[in-house]
Amino acid sequence: MLLGEDNNKITLIQFREQLLDILEERLNCYGGITTKVIRKNNGVILEGIFLNRAGDSISPAFYVENLYDSYIKGASIISIADDVSNQYQKDCTHLKGMVDFYKDFECVKNRVLYRIINYNDNEQFLQNVPYRKYLDFAVIYYCKIENSHIGKGNITVYNEHISMWDVKEEQLYKYALHNTPKLLPEYIINIENIMSDMLDECEFSIKECTDQCTEIYNINETATENILYVLTNGENYYGACVMLYKNVLNKFAHQMNKNFYILPSSVHEVLLLPVEDKEDEETDELKNMVRMVNDTQVELEERLSYNVYYYNRFKDKISIV
Question: Are 240 and 264 in contact (CB under 8 A)?
């Protein structure tokens, strides 16, 4: 019996060592199994396992922390090792073709998109990726990949990629500026009478508000005043960057005939609150709400900002308030 395979759970370190031993024996990896620290958004750090079998030029990453979470929830180490082995062997052939595809910028340039993350919370991560600063955000790049065998995926663009492609950040921005609205068009989600509920009930999260929406529609269909809106993209994934799309905010503001606050819900969406004008008391309440939701409802990796923003339709400008 493996250590901990009875009712007593083992530690993360013990789990990691046992899993690596099983995988090494089972897959007979050429060059062994390597692990690498992977830095995610907002300082989230995970350890990736990479299997190096002879003849394979790439390995999918398996995150120790995620596998350990499955173990804590009841899966055995043996079954987890089986899952990793099966997934590895299933993915490798298809991943090799994707790697060859990814080496050619002419192949990927029309799939380059942008998204936004918090600048101050990701200073170390930003040393390794091309980006540009906007307000308190960093605009970074990724490639949207679709494969009939392994599904959809997103590959963050690192400095080593643009060196391989021999391109500059300005070129990435040019393509992303065109591709992102085209591949991920904007949507506005109407949340009626939700603002007072969110301020009154601290347990009520923005995601729960979004889940209760009964209608998703394009900007041209909005006509109601004094309502909170969620701005995102059609996939509701990395959708906060829609606030950077050309004319989207201006069009919404003129249709509402109001300026509005922008509340950072997560990296996937922002909230729009049309108002007649900025008021200090209202701004303070909104800042408190954003802080409460970030601290209690949003996963660290998905947090965008603790700031509140204001869009002025006459100046066509976003500012931090």
Answer: yes
| Angle, vertex CA 315, rays to CA 314 and CA 317, nearest 5 | 125
Can you name the residues that pair with 261 across neighbouring β-strands?
273, 310
Record the pTM: 0.74
Task: Check if the beta carbon of residue 256 is closer than 8 Å to that of residue 230.
Answer: no
CB neighbours of 144 closer than 8 A, spacing ≥ 6? 111, 113, 152, 154, 183
DSSP designation for 40: -
- Whole-angstrom Cα distance, residue 208 to residue 210? 5
Provide the token pair at 73.
């929830």
Q: How many CA atoms lie within 13 A of 257 on its CB side?
A: 3
Among 157, 229, 139, residue whose Cα is nearest residue 187: 229
**142-159 per-residue burial string, b: 16 or more CB within 10 A, e: under 16:** bbbbeeeebeeeeeebee
Nearest to 150 by CA among 201, 105, 87, 101: 87
- Rounded to the nearest 10 degrees, the angle between the axes of helix 77-102 and helix 64-72 is 150
Sign of the dihedral through C-alpha 143, 144, 147, 153: positive
Integer CA distances (angstroms), 139 to 45, 132, 303, in order: 20, 5, 15
Q: Which amino acid is at 76?
A: S
Express each pLDDT in 225-242 by its tens digit: 457 899 999 898 999 999
**How many C-beta atoms surround the C-beta of residue 288 within 10 A?**
13
Partnered with residue 273 across adjacent β-strands are: 261
Instruction: Check: CB of residue 261 under 8 Å from CB of residue 280.
Output: no
With CA atoms as reference, report the closest residue to 177 among 81, 241, 226.
Answer: 241
Tens digits of per-residue pLDDT, 278-314? Answer: 877 788 999 999 999 999 999 999 999 999 999 999 9
